[in-house]
Specification:
Layout (H helix, E strand, L loop, with lengths): L1 E7 H8 L2 E3 L5 E5 L9 E5 L5 H5 L5 E4 L10 E4 L3 H12 L14 E2 L4 E2 L4 E2 L4 E2 L4 E2 L4 E2 L4 E2 L4 E2 L4 E4 L4 E4 L2 E4 L5 E4 L4 E2 L4 E3 L5 E4 L4 E2 L4 E2 L4 E2 L4 E2 L4 E2 L4 E2 L4 E2 L4 E2 L4 E2 L4 E2 L4 E2 L8 E3 L4 E2 H12 L1 H8 L1
Parallel strand pairs: 3-4, 4-5, 5-6, 7-10, 8-11, 9-12, 10-13, 11-14, 12-15, 13-18, 14-19, 15-20, 18-21, 19-22, 20-23, 21-24, 22-25, 23-26, 24-27, 25-28, 26-29, 27-30, 28-31, 29-32, 31-33
Antiparallel strand pairs: 1-3, 2-6, 16-17, 33-34
């Protein structure tokens, strides 16, 4: 999330009422999660396990719950609760704006685009040319839809990230201030849910086709010309590169990369990065020919055990 202007370290510290380490006029340009930070961004970290990763990231301002040495050219915001204060910044720079009508006055709809009944378009939504948005689709604030996009009935774009911190009193939600960006020539089936980024974008790449009943988590990037079948669940912060095929009921954990040309057969449980142009099957998943050989060997076990007696 980029701020509307350049802020100083001192200004940000005053917004969230915390101490800072560094020059008071140190520039602050935005805020992001660690996987998408760029110079000028704030990143938050509240666990010693991840201190070094945050300090060595591209972020130049680290919102942290301990005074530590920081690399040259960076600064600290020292808070007793970085998670809480990151939420404060989200509320300040991207506050919730309620809608007063189904299609916001600030929504932009391109020439030749048809909006079916009961569609909800949030604030500052932009939809390109020659799109078809079917009934009961909900497109949240700030989402961007390209040209020649079809979105079928009941789909939700821009729901909040499923991201919580467990506290003694219950679960504390990390607020979402990002967007969903759907590029040109995409088709999205019925009753899909594509969550917006926490601070960045969830992206559906050009020419990709999504079946019905698909869940895509926050900040995930789907590449170009991907094919995703029904009931697939993709967690947050996943990179799906170009020309990937994902068959029904595949589950993909967070923070991994599905390489170009990967094929994931139905019901794969994907727990790590894949190799380009490779087909996988099973849970735990593996290269399909290897998995088939393993299953064939397992079928022989009763006979082997019998002969050992």
């Amino acid at each position: 999330m980029r701020f509307p202007r350049k802020y100083s370290l001192k200004e940000i510290a005053e917004l969230i009422d915390c101490n800072y380490k560094g020059e008071s006029e140190f520039p602050v340009l935005g805020m992001n999660e660690i996987h998408v930070v760029t110079p000028g961004d704030i990143v938050f970290v509240d666990h010693p396990k991840y201190y070094e990763k945050a300090l060595q990231s591209a972020a130049t301002v680290i919102l942290i719950n301990k005074e530590v040495e920081w690399p040259v050219g960076k600064a600290l915001l020292v808070s007793d609760d970085p998670f809480r204060d990151f939420n404060k910044l989200t509320r300040h720079f991207n506050p919730f704006k309620g809608s007063v009508k189904a299609v916001s006055d600030s929504a932009e709809i391109g020439e030749g685009t048809y909006i079916q009944p009961n569609v909800v378009l949030g604030n500052d939504v932009r939809i390109g040319k020659n799109c078809l948005i079917h009934a009961n689709v909900n497109i949240g604030d700030n989402c961007i839809i390209g040209d020649n996009v079809v979105i079928h009935a009941g789909t939700v774009l821009g729901g909040d990230a499923f991201y919580y911190k467990k506290r003694p009193e219950g679960f504390d939600k990390l607020l979402s201030g990002g967007r969903v960006v759907v590029e040109n020539n995409v088709e999205i089936g019925s009753n899909c849910s594509i969550d917006r980024g926490v601070t960045g974008d969830t992206i559906i790449g050009e020419g990709s086709k999504l079946d019905n009943l698909i869940q895509i988590g926050h900040d995930t990037v789907i590449g170009k010309k991907c094919l995703i079948a029904s009931q697939v669940g993709i967690a947050g912060c996943v990179i799906v590169e170009d020309d990937v095929t994902i068959w029904g009921q595949v589950g993909i954990r967070s923070d991994i990369t599905i390489a170009t040309g990967t094929v994931l057969m139905a019901q794969c449980g994907v727990s790590k990065d894949t190799t380009p142009n490779t087909t996988y099957w099973g849970t735990p998943f593996g290269e399909v020919r290897t998995k088939l050989k393993e299953y064939a060997a397992i079928k022989k076990l009763p006979e082997i055990v019998k002969n050992l007696k």
